[in-house]
Amino acid sequence: DADSKDKRDPVHVGTALISGNLAAHQIYTFRNIKGQVDVGVFNDANRSLFMSNPNFLVAKRIGGRSRADLVKLKFPPWDYMGILSSGPHTIRAGKSISVTFALVAGKSLPDLKQNTSNAKQIAYASPSITAKVVKGGVKIGWEKPISFVGGYQLFRRIEGEEEFEQIGPRIIEGAVFPDTDVQYGIEYTYKVAAVDYKGTPTESYSQEVTVIPDFIPDPPVGMTGEATANGDRFLLRLPKPIQKISGYIIYRNHTGEPPWTPIAKVKPDTTNFTDVNIYPDHQYFYALAATNQSGDIGDIAVMVNPETEEPVSLEIIEAPIPSAKLDLQKVIVYPNPFQISRHQTMIFDNLTARAMIYIYDGSGTLIQQLEHIDKSPGLEWDLKNQDGESLSAGVYIYYVEDIGSVKTHNLVKEEQLPHPWEIEKLKHTGKFAVIN
User: Fold this and answer.
1) What CATH number should be reported for the domain holding residue 303?
2) 191 and 158 in one domain?
3) What is the SS3 assignment for 46?
4) Sequence-distant (≥ 6) Cβ neighbours of residue 378 within 8 angstroms
5) Which burial class, exposed, middle or buried, applies to 5 when counting CB atoms under 10 A from its CB (0-12, 13-18, 19+)?
6) How many helices (H) and strands (E) does the chain have?
7) 218 assigned to some structural domain
8) What are the per-10-residue average pLDDT scores of the chain (436 residues)?
């Protein structure tokens, strides 16, 4: 609707070829000498002339009549259609090509051209970019753009400098790159741009992301532990930090193997920690990890026997206190389904005072282990797996066991703890759904 005769705001609409080879072009309709509707196709060489007067080809066919004559003959002056096609292409057997078109509009011809340029930038720009501190540097990753690209170029700006400089290979094929040429405490800003299938830079940059690298702490070895004199708690002695860390995370489980459950976060100058949430006739293994000033967590160091370097457990041998009959069949989970866009946490309710919860994905892989040691019946969970990543949409299985009623086996040398399902205990299994 590019004219103003209908008293509507003019809008220029076009289809732009973002990537690929331009081949051809406009189809126009007209009535021939016999009054029949006919069509014609013209190539790009006549584009300017045709856009200025779309009836010039029609006029030639009927003897060079003027536009006024064409109006009298009821030839609509703007009755034509635009078609963009791409090609020719050489497609190898078993291969494919990618061609990107964009429908654009503007209130004026300059607006249309500007929006066409914007469409190309959007098609080639990566939707998002991330920078994560890892051991030895920074890991930069980005999403692939809408249009097919031949690779990427990564740019970095160092704190105190004004300009970005390209880093890494001239063309990066994948969507991730490790930057190992960094210094701790220095701010780095990254952005990425795509190159087309010919290897030509598109200058369609992603958003910028900033990160300050920090070292990843080494595993803090040297933690020891023992039962206190009254036998109702364990005293853990933490090693003195040898690096500049922000704190320790203390982990615990009943097997000495992953996964581990965090039970406390303490300051780096903490020398002793007392675990009071323990029960007789259960083995407890402990591990320790350090965090840097950015909150990144280092590798875990398991508490071991210094002579054998084997994981060592702490245990209180005592007759369990009789308790009332327990029933895990009343365990409920809510909200279920869990909607990612609305909810923050999930509640496991009607738990026993001592319970373990195992979460499995649809393939049967254990993704999280939660320990509940509390007189209250509820446990709140943020729906993150063992790697700290939020769960995606899907159906998950949870398995709850009451560890207060589990009888610990007497282990001999090289004997492994039995699988949780091989021990007689109170248990309950259910499922929950996660939706977007």
Assistant:
1) 2.60.40.10
2) yes
3) helix
4) 347, 348, 349, 351
5) exposed
6) 4, 29
7) no
8) 58 72 56 60 52 53 54 53 62 78 82 84 81 89 84 94 94 93 92 85 87 89 88 90 93 91 94 88 92 87 92 75 56 89 88 88 91 82 90 92 58 43 67 91
- For residue 5, give the amino acid letter: K
- Token readout for 151 is 């690779």
> Each residue of 366-387: b (16+ CB within 10 Å) or e?
ebbbbbbbeeebebebebebee
In the listed set 211, 242, 268, which residue is the last one of a domain according to the structure? 211
What residues have CB less than 8 Å from 111, skipping those under 6 apart? 12
What amino acid occupies position 60? K
Domain count for the chain, please give it: 4
Residues 311 and 362 in one domain: no
Residue showing tokens 């083995």:
283
Q: Which domain holds residue 398?
A: 328-435
The strand pairing partners of 320, in sequence order, are none
Q: Give the β-pairing of 247-253 and 261-266.
A: antiparallel
At which of 177, 211, 245 does a domain end?
211
| Residue showing tokens 């809008």 | 11
Distance CA 344, CA 383 (A): 8
